Amino acid sequence: MKALVILGSRNPKGQTARAAEAFLRGVTDGGGECEQFFLPQMRIERCRQCEDNGWGICRTEGRCVIEDDFASLVDKIRSADAAIFATPVYFSDLSESMRAFLDRLRRTCMNQSGKAGIAGKKAIGICIAGGGGGGASVVGVTATLIDEPQFGQNLALGSFSGAPQCVQYCRDNLPPLRILN
Questions:
Q1: In angstroms, rounded to a whole number, what is the distance separating the alpha carbons of residues 175 and 145?
Q2: Does residue 136 have a pLDDT over 80?
């Protein structure tokens, strides 16, 4: 199995990165391979809503007119068996880099050619709330296997007094190879 881990965290040693790393270790320990990308280190622009109607060739051709790292990352998702999206929770929402990426992915997937290799892809979301930014005093993790856009199967849900307990929880409760195969 080949898994692609996309992180919306700026801190490669932070709580979100450590939770994703625990997941990644589970995949590699089970014989799979993983590749990870930190969105803030990439050049991913936000959607420009190109035309007056708020759309562009994303809707008509399933691709984006912006020339940045978006298209190559989407190609990597297409070639992977599973995509893992890990993001810190900022103000009850995704990180800005994850939001920019997913907004554009959603738009390109409105067209059949943009959906190719994406629709039906096994995906897991890992969201970490609480940390050093003055937010919540506890760390939380939610991981969901997404088979259909409207349905999800909760794999793990917990809240912890610190990152080490959260990382251990991910190691103990996210059996990726059993879930993704």
A1: 12
A2: no
